Amino acid sequence: MDSFAPTQEQGLLAESLERFFAKEYGFDRRRAIAASEHGFDRAAWARFAEFGWLGIGIPEERGGLGGTAVEIALVMQAIGRHLVLEPYLSTAVVGAGLLRRAGEPHAKLLADVAAGKILLALAHGEKRARFDLAHVETRAERTGTGYTLSGHKAVVPHAETADHLIVSARSAGAAAEEQGVTLFLVPRGAKGIGLQPYATIDGQRAAEVTLDRVALGADAVLGMAEAGHDLIARVAEDAIVALSAEAVGAMDALIGLTRDYLKTRKQFGVPIGSFQVLQHRLVDLFMAQALARSTAEAAARALSSEDARYRAATAAAAKVQAGRAGRLVGQEAVQLHGGMGMTAELAVGAYFKRLFAIDVAFGNADWHQRRFAGLANAGSSKPL
What we know:
Elements: H1 8-24, H2 27-34, H3 42-51, H4 69-81, H5 88-102, H6 110-114, E1 120-123, E2 139-142, E3 146-157, E4 164-170, E5 181-187, E6 193-199, E7 205-217, E8 221-222, H7 228-264, E9 266-267, E10 270-271, H8 276-302, H9 308-337, H10 348-360, H11 365-376
Parallel strand pairs: 1-4
Antiparallel strand pairs: 2-3, 3-7, 4-5, 5-8, 6-7, 9-10
Helix pairs in contact: 1-4, 4-7, 5-7, 7-8, 7-9, 7-10, 8-9, 9-10, 9-11
């Protein structure tokens, strides 16, 4: 990362990511992958495992490489820069994060995540939840030997190709209460699970998931029963920071494409990039992206803090900056490319759509701004 001096290992990681994606993940290749049956390249996923990228953040004793949110952010920046479609966020960040924090017996699956053998998807969002992580209406009814799950989960990323769904269900309490939410590790093919898959606006894949009295044993519970909200909230911070880093990478690429276009597109016999008003607009994009970058980097480092409020506030700040800057950069890039910016042949529109999708994932900029304001009014051992 540019604003903070990277270690030698982090620099080598960034170089290997850029080298691989620049060679293997051009925009035409990306369009072909998006149009494929599963919407991602399993051969590329195997390479991710071979390079050790899927093991970042997973302890060495669990088959991973160790590392922190800073290294994950480097991966996500490269993913954003090259519009990578593989389910790194859902499996290696969110899914692995839940398994790691839940502990035994499911933590043993982390080795399979690092090896690229299994894919995970968090089935948590619901139609009436908006961005409230505590709003869970899906029910988990206790039986003599375990639970039965019934409900509906909306817009579950990569659900169709996941080997396991991590499903949140309410085993106690009312719909919006933090207590009473339990997480379950559910095989995708379990009886009673229905999937309605579709492509999302940004070329990714998601599905509506219905659960019709899905029978599970007590050993399917992830972590402690009725304590799932805290697990989700902690991993949501990881996802928010990772998405903010992805947005930084996408903006970086989009600004580069726009700068190059302004240098080559001519009007009145000169490149339009020589027009001062367009130079000023490009500078505004650089400044917005630089602020989003520094905020995301600070949030990645804050994830190791024991101060929960400080951690949550910096993550919220990063999401606000990523969302606001992403919208500005996306809109301006399309405008500066003219009518060409809306064509499918150029990557500009694809970056804009991905930045829009990043903004609404795990809470948009407006929602996180209100959340940051609430956290700023509470006490903390660290200044915000």
